[in-house]
């Protein structure tokens, strides 16, 4: 069994110690990867067999990866702009929207038409999966992302504590799924996320929901999983830090334990988008804020989503999209 002192180390200065997966024995528990056929890619729809696999692994593992789901050109165009924005946010230091440490930044994409593609932000394969887990026409009320930043000269790379994004009293069954879209291939070197598969549906009064967490909702470090539970879980199913290919989507249960890992590269910014789909019955109050010129893009086709939006003038939205809060300041709870 792992010693608690080793499990609690949040700073990762060497590749050898950057994730719990590297200090636990036994095989890695990697996420299931679906590889759509060319016909599925062209139709932007999984076959019944692959859809069944996606739903099965969502329930079992709390996460599934689908490769070749997003056109690479759409990612490249957005990544160039968001890397520039990430450097702007990094320069703000302690005044920036960082999550747990300054190496992981909360970052919105520019919400205007030239950077908004439904293949990226409202991916039909992602929606196909979420609507079969949560119910038809999930509500899309959150659109942001995070950047794993290479450390500034003289700074030590840091990892996040293992945590859950559902840092409030929440249902014990699926109610919210996160769609992550990496803009480049994510690797352990550039800060791919550490995953604790299966932790979205742990049983027991002390190991599920907010009973397993430390920190109050709204604090910068809320949602941290209690150390003794990490030791217990690692002995049952080790965490992993997978490589996720560019062009993939990752669908994750909001309740799943995970941790942002340090970017150990010399200068490669790793950006991963995050859209949250809530069950149609879930009474979340959030709304998207998008530029008016995105409206025709969203209305061009039936996305299979309910999308509450506050439409804002282009110059106004460009003037404030980089002034959002850090991740734990968002309210993913529902009305009573």
From TrEMBL:
Which InterPro entries did the record assign? Fungal_Metabolite_Diox, Phytyl_CoA_dOase-like
**What SUPFAM superfamilies does the record tag this protein with?**
Clavaminate synthase-like
Q: Which residues form the signal peptide?
A: none
A Pfam family (short name) is PhyH
The record, for PANTHER family, names: PHYTANOYL-COA DIOXYGENASE FAMILY PROTEIN (AFU_ORTHOLOGUE AFUA_2G03330)
This chain's protein is named: Phytanoyl-CoA dioxygenase
Organism of origin: Neurospora tetrasperma (strain FGSC 2508 / ATCC MYA-4615 / P0657)
């Amino acid at each position: 069994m792992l010693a608690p002192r080793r499990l609690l180390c949040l700073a990762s200065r060497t590749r050898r110690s950057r994730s719990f997966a590297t200090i636990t024995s036994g095989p890695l528990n990697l996420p299931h990867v679906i590889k759509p056929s060319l016909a599925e890619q062209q139709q932007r729809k999984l076959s019944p067999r692959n859809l069944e696999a996606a739903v099965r692994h969502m329930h079992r593992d709390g996460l599934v990866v689908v490769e070749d789901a997003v056109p690479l050109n759409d990612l490249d165009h957005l990544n160039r702009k968001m890397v520039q924005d990430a450097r702007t946010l990094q320069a703000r230091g302690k005044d920036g929207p960082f999550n747990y440490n300054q190496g992981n930044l909360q970052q919105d994409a520019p919400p205007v038409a030239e950077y908004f593609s439904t293949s990226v932000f409202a991916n039909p394969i992602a929606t196909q999966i979420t609507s079969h887990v949560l119910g038809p026409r999930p509500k899309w009320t959150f659109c942001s992302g995070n950047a794993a930043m290479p450390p500034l000269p003289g700074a030590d790379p840091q990892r996040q504590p293992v945590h859950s994004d559902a840092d409030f009293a929440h249902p014990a069954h699926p109610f919210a799924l996160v769609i992550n879209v990496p803009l480049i291939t994510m690797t352990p070197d550039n800060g791919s996320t550490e995953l604790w598969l299966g932790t979205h549906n742990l049983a027991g009064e002390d190991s599920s929901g907010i009973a397993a967490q430390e920190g109050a909702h709204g604090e910068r470090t809320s949602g941290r999983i209690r150390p003794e539970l990490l030791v217990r879980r690692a002995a049952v199913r080790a965490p992993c830090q997978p490589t996720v290919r560019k062009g993939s989507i990752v669908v994750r249960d909001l309740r799943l334990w995970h941790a942002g890992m340090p970017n150990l590269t010399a200068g490669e910014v790793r950006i991963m988008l995050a859209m949250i789909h809530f069950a149609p019955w879930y009474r979340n109050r959030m709304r998207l804020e998008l530029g008016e010129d995105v409206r025709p893009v969203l209305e061009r086709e039936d996305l299979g989503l309910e999308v509450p939006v506050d439409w804002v003038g282009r110059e106004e939205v460009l003037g404030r999209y980089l002034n959002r809060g850090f991740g734990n300041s968002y309210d993913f709870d529902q009305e009573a």
